[in-house]
Write a structure and sequence with these properties.
Helix content is 44%, strand content 16%. The protein contains 14 helices and twelve strands. This is Transcriptional regulator, LacI family.
């Protein structure tokens, strides 16, 4: 176990180098010393169990060695797994991670922004409730946005190609004979300003020559409460069985909650109605029936966001980068093959 009481002087003495050399190895990860010296210093660090005193280092360098990860809902496994991937990537680089869950609240988000502007963090990784990209850029610390935005052309962005992922799910429904597809999305986060799912939905219907019925587009919160509300509103449509044969949900939490609510009314997903989700959270494979969904690579998104933030903290003036990963269809049992009917 590494010992914070071991000093940098003891490491320098054991390695036979100066204190400043040890300091360069710790702060610059060895970039300005020879490979031989780097090996000696690292060996001494390991032998003594030295652990860097981040507080003292921060006083000297004005760094906090703390990164804020701001997500909309820590209870959603999609976001918690992204946060964990960020933490796993940043901790070996001596950064601690603070998780801030806004629960879609602009007021909570504003408080986190205030902390960032007070130099409490060295960097921020966030999925913003609002679309104020200029405010994010003016926080005074490097920031990486999780989730695509039209306005986010000059800020580092990591996420899923939402339009591609939506069309993958829509195509699967279409291939299995569905022609009256309903959509459940949100007015929060990126969807509030961008509506990528809704845009992909309309584009797909147009490409296939299918009519667009605005009454089949439901706007709800992307959580369990929203899923229960969605199911009730869907079943309240007059003659819903002839108006819609399937439901594409904006995320798995929404889909899972809706399926549970449908069953309360005797409507069995996969038999009476087709349902497809997005994200592929762990619970998606454990529902009844198991949920067909479009997987988003949560771990890759978190790792890429952390790597991009590290890069930006080293080079604040570099050109903004955007990394969007494709969605992947995961076929289970919640979608009916209507070609056989």
């Amino acid at each position: 176990m590494k010992n914070s009481k071991i000093s940098i002087y003891e490491v320098a003495r054991l390695a036979g180098v100066s204190k400043s050399t040890v300091s360069r190895v710790i702060s610059d990860r060895g970039g300005s010393v020879s490979p031989e010296t780097l090996e000696r210093v690292n060996r001494a660090i390991e032998q003594l169990g030295y652990r860097k005193n981040s507080i003292a280092a921060g006083l000297r360098t004005r760094k906090t060695y703390i990164v804020l990860v701001m997500i909309p809902d820590v209870a959603n496994p999609f976001w918690s797994e992204i946060a964990r991937a960020v933490q796993d990537k940043l901790e070996p680089e001596s950064y601690s991670v603070v998780i801030g869950s806004t629960y879609w609240s602009e007021e909570r988000e504003a408080r986190y922004y205030e902390l960032a502007q007070m130099s409490r963090f060295d960097g921020v990784i966030l999925n913003s409730v609002t679309d104020n990209i200029e405010l994010i850029k003016k926080l005074g610390v490097p920031a990486v946005l999780i989730g695509e935005r039209v306005a986010a052309q000059n800020i580092d962005t990591v996420g899923t190609d939402t339009m591609q992922a939506t069309k993958v799910g829509m195509q699967y429904l279409y291939d299995l004979g569905h022609r009256r597809i309903a959509l459940a999305t949100s007015e929060h986060g990126s969807e509030r300003y961008l509506s990528l799912r809704a845009r992909a939905y309309k584009d797909f219907l147009h490409e296939k020559g299918l009519p667009f019925d605005p009454s089949l587009v439901f706007s709800v919160n992307l959580n369990e409460e929203g899923g229960r509300e969605l199911a009730k509103r869907f079943l309240a449509m007059p003659d819903w069985r002839n108006r819609a044969d399937s439901l594409f949900c904006g995320n798995d939490i929404l889909a899972i909650a809706a399926m549970s609510e449908f069953r309360k009314f005797g409507i069995i997903p996969g038999i009476d109605i087709s349902i497809i989700g997005m994200d592929d959270v762990p619970a998606a494979s454990q529902t009844y029936p198991p949920l067909t969904t479009v997987r988003k690579p949560r771990e890759r998104i978190g790792q890429a966001a952390a790597e991009l933030l590290l890069k930006r903290m080293e080079n604040p003036a570099g050109q903004p980068e955007k990394h969007l990963f494709p969605g992947e269809l995961v076929i289970r049992d919640s979608v009916i093959d209507r070609r056989k009917r």
